[in-house]
């Protein structure tokens, strides 16, 4: 703590009230959407400029003080959780859109810009930023966890949509990665090394991301199925047939029940796909025909989708509220969102296996997912004091991960490793690959000051 | 050399005739398509299995012998050029397609599989591997240089199409990166660190790559324009409008002249786009209408495209033969292909600037390009002994790179750094970013044995 106090003295002149050491201020930064216990940062710094960040990092480096980057706190695996003796760096105030270049289908943003704010700013351009993880996360946070979400089937994840970064390294050095060109073969791909590194290698202070044209026609709606397997088989065949759906989300009957109650929907409590199609009017009509034909073979009801923007907004608002909706199913409950991604052909086995495991354990847990990517979530709904329930949920989660790894999938499609999946990381990639990641970490952050304890268990 | 002899003795039992130390054998591996002088390897090893590679790497590591990975030698920047005292590892014999998984739209290959062999093998599945750099390169080589080519506009580059790798590290350790899932947020993105690292970090011994459905309808043809600028503006607006063209290649009048002569075409010697559209029959018809409308405003002639596969094959064969076609313009000439990629809005300036610089220098050089990506090539056609011509070409190349960097582009879209662009790498990313790349290199290859002298100038 004395190193932290010394750092505070050193930076007080520059940061002033943006160096938050009093308890009431720090307590604002405890919030965490995930199921991990939220700690209070020992101190929070609020940089406004790249120079602020550089000075902070250089001083922390000199003082040996760890640094934890923070966005708006929507991450789910404790990725940005407080670390004792560390300074938490709240980047949400660096939230300017620095440049929009419609002619190159890109924009340049500070890390604290949220996806909703960005799309608001883009409205007049006819372009949009497609990555939509549900929560109104910051771009910096989304890059740091390689986030994706509902639109990734068609538009890719943050990985495919980040062109370049400016990063402050642990010693305060500022580097630029990538370029504004759509592709490059110039040297090591540092952009994609920092994307997904969860703040363990440096601090992202600027990002260039790809934009996409707002589609001429959009159709969206919900689609009920006789069986969970029928809904999933429809997804699998849709992807295998190359139908370019924009969004394809699964909600099981428990999820529908939660959303009906929370968001005032009146959907039948059956396995349901929320579908969105983008394209020209003729293009979306054609996609709709292809989808209908596939679904009809798997117990799908009528595919009633609409071009009405308000109806579409209501639908996606309900989908995005699924996590609080699940939480509201039980008084004083906490939700724990798992995050598995499997090869598309294994999705039916993964989801029916998940449902069976949840039911066998007697847990309450809707299943939802960005199923077009093979990515799904189980939302365990638990009271904090239900020790037996948490133990069962932990066991089911491990079972889901084991299944995913046994079929070539991954323990996390989009939430990252944080503190919750450090063990799973080793099971997924093997000890030698994780040892290599640690060598890279040590090469870039030799003092181990960047977001310590995240991704890798401390040795 | 004595270390190399010792290594040969150690490995003779395992490699037998696949350890090639005699001059006639080694001379087979001098061929290089690029303009860099081709050296002869001191010894060539031909592994057939991952275990061969692991044993070779471990032994070379113990003996302190450098290792240079080789595919089929189509790289253009000396990326796989011989290094004195090193063993060149010819991976072209590890050329099996290990698995095709149509249900997951992926396949698993050894690094020596060529793209043509892979697509031949995929024919019955209705799927194809889209990355097509022109040359019949190996998948391992294409991953190592982050190659792309004519189809990248629609299907992305190797970066977007590689899902996972198996890599033998410099000490012989085998690791696995990535997964079979379409996305993952599990730890550092090692897959994309190795992709584009040009064999300087380890040896790729297996790759999982994405496949795509063969489109129902394909239209292709050539499209003449009144002016170079009109052709380029058509490309820019096509991309900005989001028309999902599969291929969009520019050939300037000099390139057309070369292709007419070499491939027996009879195209008018004017700025020309080679275009290919993929989709449903209605989809390609719609794309065609949109393209025609854009081109009509920029001096485009009739867009005559056809569904005839033989005609399409003839067209692309001519495009792919552009490099030898350029070489054939002058007796005993060598071609030097530059490789610039700029943000799409800067393409007109880049290409008109290139033509002006070439003409001002009095050089013979067709301009071609994967212009839908903002990527173009100048093929300097030069006799080896034309010292003044080479000096002028070097100056023009630097000018093209400077322009690209000044507008946020890159010094290489797809050929990589090799030995030819080591200086440009530093100009593009800055000394601090390149220093970081070197720290990563040192962490993974502390003895500096992997493809030394490539990407980074030796210190």
From TrEMBL, chains A, B:
<protein>
    <recommendedName>
        <fullName>D-lactate dehydrogenase (cytochrome)</fullName>
        <ecNumber>1.1.2.4</ecNumber>
    </recommendedName>
</protein>
<dbReference type="InterPro" id="IPR006094">
    <property type="entry name" value="Oxid_FAD_bind_N"/>
</dbReference>
<dbReference type="InterPro" id="IPR016169">
    <property type="entry name" value="FAD-bd_PCMH_sub2"/>
</dbReference>
<dbReference type="GO" id="GO:0071949">
    <property type="term" value="F:FAD binding"/>
</dbReference>
<feature type="domain" description="FAD-binding PCMH-type">
    <location>
        <begin position="37"/>
        <end position="214"/>
    </location>
</feature>
<dbReference type="InterPro" id="IPR016171">
    <property type="entry name" value="Vanillyl_alc_oxidase_C-sub2"/>
</dbReference>
<keyword id="KW-0274">FAD</keyword>
<dbReference type="GO" id="GO:0008720">
    <property type="term" value="F:D-lactate dehydrogenase (NAD+) activity"/>
</dbReference>
<keyword id="KW-0285">Flavoprotein</keyword>
<keyword id="KW-0560">Oxidoreductase</keyword>
<dbReference type="InterPro" id="IPR004113">
    <property type="entry name" value="FAD-bd_oxidored_4_C"/>
</dbReference>
<dbReference type="InterPro" id="IPR036318">
    <property type="entry name" value="FAD-bd_PCMH-like_sf"/>
</dbReference>
<dbReference type="InterPro" id="IPR016166">
    <property type="entry name" value="FAD-bd_PCMH"/>
</dbReference>
<keyword id="KW-0809">Transit peptide</keyword>
<comment type="similarity">
    <text>Belongs to the FAD-binding oxidoreductase/transferase type 4 family.</text>
</comment>
<dbReference type="InterPro" id="IPR016164">
    <property type="entry name" value="FAD-linked_Oxase-like_C"/>
</dbReference>
<dbReference type="Pfam" id="PF01565">
    <property type="entry name" value="FAD_binding_4"/>
</dbReference>
<dbReference type="Pfam" id="PF02913">
    <property type="entry name" value="FAD-oxidase_C"/>
</dbReference>
<dbReference type="GO" id="GO:1903457">
    <property type="term" value="P:lactate catabolic process"/>
</dbReference>
<dbReference type="GO" id="GO:0004458">
    <property type="term" value="F:D-lactate dehydrogenase (cytochrome) activity"/>
</dbReference>
């Amino acid at each position: 703590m004395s190193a932290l106090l010394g750092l505070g003295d050193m930076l007080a002149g520059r940061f002033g009230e943006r160096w938050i050491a009093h308890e009431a201020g720090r307590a604002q930064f405890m919030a965490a959407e995930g199921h991990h216990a939220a700690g209070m940062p020992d101190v929070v710094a609020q940089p406004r400029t790249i120079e602020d960040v550089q000075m902070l990092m250089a001083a922390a480096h000199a003082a040996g003080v760890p640094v934890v980057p923070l966005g708006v706190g929507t991450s789910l695996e404790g990725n940005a959780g407080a670390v004792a003796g560390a300074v938490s760096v709240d980047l949400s105030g660096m939230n300017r859109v620095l440049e929009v270049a419609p002619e190159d289908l890109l924009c340049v943003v500070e890390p604290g810009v949220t996806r909703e704010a960005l799309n608001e700013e883009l409205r007049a351009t006819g372009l949009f930023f497609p990555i939509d993880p549900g929560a109104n996360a910051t771009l910096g946070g989304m890059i740091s966890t390689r986030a994706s979400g509902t639109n990734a089937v068609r538009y890719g994840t943050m990985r495919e949509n980040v062109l370049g970064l400016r990063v402050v390294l642990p010693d305060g050095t500022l580097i630029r990665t990538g370029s504004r060109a759509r592709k490059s073969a110039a040297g090591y791909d540092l952009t994609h090394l920092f994307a997904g590194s969860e703040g363990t290698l440096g601090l992202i202070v600027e990002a260039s991301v790809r934009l996409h044209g707002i589609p001429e026609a959009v159709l969206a709606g919900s689609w009920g199925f006789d069986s969970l397997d029928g809904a999933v088989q429809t997804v699998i065949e849709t992807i295998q047939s190359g139908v370019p759906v924009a969004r394809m989300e699964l909600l099981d009957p428990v999820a529908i029940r939660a959303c009906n109650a929370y968001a005032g929907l009146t959907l039948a409590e059956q396995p349901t796909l929320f579908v969105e199609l983008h394209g020209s009017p003729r293009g979306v009509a054609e996609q709709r025909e292809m989808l209908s034909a596939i679904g009809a073979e798997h117990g799908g009801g009528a595919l009633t989708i609409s071009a009405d923007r308000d109806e579409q907004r209501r639908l996606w608002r309900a989908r995005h509220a699924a996590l609080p909706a699940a939480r509201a199913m039980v008084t004083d409950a906490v939700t724990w969102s798992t995050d598995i991604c499997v090869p598309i052909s294994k999705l039916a086995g993964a989801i029916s296996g998940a449902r069976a495991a949840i039911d066998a354990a007697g847990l309450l847990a809707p299943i939802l997912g960005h199923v077009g990517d093979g990515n799904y979530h189980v939302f365990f709904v638990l009271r904090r004091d239900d020790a037996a329930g948490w133990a069962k949920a932990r066991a089911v989660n491990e079972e889901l991960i084991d299944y995913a790894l046994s079929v070539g999938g991954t323990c996390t499609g989009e939430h990252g490793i944080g503190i919750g999946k450090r063990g799973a990381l080793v099971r997924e990639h093997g000890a030698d690959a994780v040892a290599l990641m640690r060598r890279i970490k040590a090469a870039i952050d030799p003092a181990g000051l960047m977001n310590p304890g995240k991704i890798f268990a401390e040795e």
